[in-house]
Design a protein that fits this description.
The structure is a single chain. The protein is built from five helices and eight strands; from the N terminus they run E-E-H-H-H-E-E-E-H-E-H-E-E. By secondary structure, it is of the alpha+beta class. The strands form two sheets. The protein has a five-stranded antiparallel sheet, sandwiched between helices. Strands 6-8-7 form a three-stranded antiparallel sheet, covered by helices on one side. Helix 1 crosses helix 3.
Length: about 170
């Protein structure tokens, strides 16, 4: 399985690894994070299982979620999420609350988006964002995405934000 390492001016996007477990479990036990991801706090073991699922997506699809590092610290996850019940790949991001307000989500998501478009030649990516999640809405806006309707994913209403491929405009 080949998971690339991507870099920005400040961040490193890399494969999840076992040493991320404590930080990843803490991120998923934080209600400020989980409110936007279905509401259920994940146990330490459930966080491990989710890491396994994200790594498995790389093997099955050739793309997936990256760990985000800043100065060697795990600060969150970003990448292309595409569970079996998603109709198309989603550009997704989650940054741990202590690292909010530094532009990490926008920087990491732009890097993952640009890599995905360059690698796979897709016309668009989507982001499913709960309408009241103002932080993620701002990230999507900064990335140049536009709302193209709403959908229900796993029982929750989401705005569908469309990220067009460079030079292609918004693809509906």
């Amino acid at each position: 399985m080949n998971i690339p390492t991507l870099t920005t001016e400040r961040l490193r996007l890399r494969a999840l690894r076992a040493s991320d477990w404590d930080d990843y479990a803490a991120l998923n036990a934080d209600p400020r994070i989980r409110d936007w991801l279905g509401g259920k706090l994940l146990s330490r073991e459930e966080a491990w299982t989710q890491m396994e699922q994200f790594l498995g997506q790389w093997a099955l699809r050739g793309y997936g979620m990256f760990a985000v590092e800043y100065g060697g610290d795990f600060v969150g996850r970003v990448g292309i999420l595409h569970p079996a019940d998603w109709p198309e790949p989603e550009l997704a991001w989650t940054i741990a609350a202590p690292f909010w307000g530094h532009g990490f989500a926008t920087e990491a998501a732009a890097c993952a988006r640009d890599w995905a478009f360059a690698t796979f030649g897709w016309d668009r990516l989507v982001s499913y964002i709960v309408p009241t999640n103002t932080r993620s809405r701002r990230v999507a806006e900064k990335l140049g995405a536009a709302i193209q309707g709403q959908t229900v994913r796993r029982g929750f209403l989401h705005d569908v934000w469309v990220h067009p491929a460079p030079g292609r405009g918004v693809v509906v």
